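Input sequence (91 aa), recorded before submission:
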Amino acid sequence: MYVTAAFIIFILGCGFLGDRLITHFRERKHEAWLRFPSIEEYARKTQLSRIQCWHCRSYSIRQYGLEARNDKRRIHACNQCNTNLYRTMWG
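Predicted structure, C-alpha coordinate format:
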Protein backbone atom coordinates (compact mmCIF):
# COMPACT_ATOMS: atom_id res chain seq x y z
CA MET A 1 0.00 0.00 0.00
CA TYR A 2 2.72 2.47 0.97
CA VAL A 3 4.83 1.45 -2.02
CA THR A 4 1.93 2.17 -4.38
CA ALA A 5 1.30 5.58 -2.81
CA ALA A 6 5.01 6.43 -2.95
CA PHE A 7 5.12 5.36 -6.60
CA ILE A 8 2.11 7.52 -7.48
CA ILE A 9 3.66 10.52 -5.69
CA PHE A 10 6.94 9.89 -7.53
CA ILE A 11 5.19 9.76 -10.93
CA LEU A 12 3.25 12.97 -10.19
CA GLY A 13 6.45 14.69 -9.08
CA CYS A 14 8.26 13.64 -12.28
CA GLY A 15 5.37 14.97 -14.34
CA PHE A 16 5.44 18.29 -12.52
CA LEU A 17 9.22 18.58 -12.84
CA GLY A 18 9.05 17.72 -16.56
CA ASP A 19 6.41 20.38 -17.13
CA ARG A 20 8.54 23.00 -15.34
CA LEU A 21 11.60 22.07 -17.40
CA ILE A 22 9.69 22.32 -20.69
CA THR A 23 8.30 25.72 -19.67
CA HIS A 24 11.79 26.90 -18.71
CA PHE A 25 13.31 25.81 -22.05
CA ARG A 26 10.48 27.49 -24.00
CA GLU A 27 11.02 30.73 -22.09
CA ARG A 28 14.77 30.60 -22.80
CA LYS A 29 14.12 29.98 -26.50
CA HIS A 30 11.74 32.94 -26.64
CA GLU A 31 14.24 35.20 -24.86
CA ALA A 32 16.94 34.15 -27.36
CA TRP A 33 14.53 34.94 -30.22
CA LEU A 34 13.96 38.42 -28.78
CA ARG A 35 17.72 39.06 -28.83
CA PHE A 36 17.76 38.80 -32.65
CA PRO A 37 17.18 42.17 -34.34
CA SER A 38 13.84 42.80 -36.03
CA ILE A 39 13.96 43.18 -39.81
CA GLU A 40 13.84 46.98 -39.46
CA GLU A 41 16.72 46.97 -36.95
CA TYR A 42 18.69 44.58 -39.18
CA ALA A 43 18.24 46.80 -42.26
CA ARG A 44 19.23 49.90 -40.30
CA LYS A 45 22.23 48.22 -38.68
CA THR A 46 23.68 46.69 -41.86
CA GLN A 47 22.86 49.66 -44.14
CA LEU A 48 22.71 47.39 -47.19
CA SER A 49 20.65 48.36 -50.24
CA ARG A 50 18.71 45.07 -50.09
CA ILE A 51 18.11 42.56 -47.34
CA GLN A 52 21.00 40.15 -47.57
CA CYS A 53 23.39 38.27 -45.32
CA TRP A 54 25.84 40.60 -43.58
CA HIS A 55 28.38 37.79 -43.34
CA CYS A 56 28.65 36.44 -46.92
CA ARG A 57 26.44 38.95 -48.83
CA SER A 58 24.15 36.22 -50.14
CA TYR A 59 20.56 37.15 -51.07
CA SER A 60 19.30 33.60 -50.47
CA ILE A 61 17.54 33.71 -47.10
CA ARG A 62 15.28 31.06 -45.59
CA GLN A 63 12.94 31.28 -42.62
CA TYR A 64 11.82 28.77 -40.04
CA GLY A 65 9.59 28.71 -36.98
CA LEU A 66 11.17 29.05 -33.56
CA GLU A 67 9.66 25.89 -32.04
CA ALA A 68 7.69 24.33 -34.89
CA ARG A 69 7.01 24.67 -38.58
CA ASN A 70 3.84 26.73 -38.01
CA ASP A 71 5.22 28.90 -35.17
CA LYS A 72 4.46 32.60 -35.77
CA ARG A 73 7.85 33.60 -34.38
CA ARG A 74 10.22 33.27 -37.36
CA ILE A 75 13.99 33.32 -37.64
CA HIS A 76 15.55 34.23 -40.97
CA ALA A 77 18.89 32.62 -41.84
CA CYS A 78 21.29 32.66 -44.76
CA ASN A 79 21.08 29.64 -47.06
CA GLN A 80 24.74 29.86 -47.97
CA CYS A 81 26.58 30.29 -44.67
CA ASN A 82 23.75 29.32 -42.26
CA THR A 83 24.07 32.54 -40.22
CA ASN A 84 20.93 33.54 -38.30
CA LEU A 85 20.13 37.11 -39.33
CA TYR A 86 16.91 38.55 -37.92
CA ARG A 87 13.47 37.74 -36.53
CA THR A 88 9.94 38.42 -37.72
CA MET A 89 6.44 37.60 -36.57
CA TRP A 90 3.67 36.20 -38.78
CA GLY A 91 0.25 37.76 -38.65
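Checked by second reader. The chain has one domain: 2-89.
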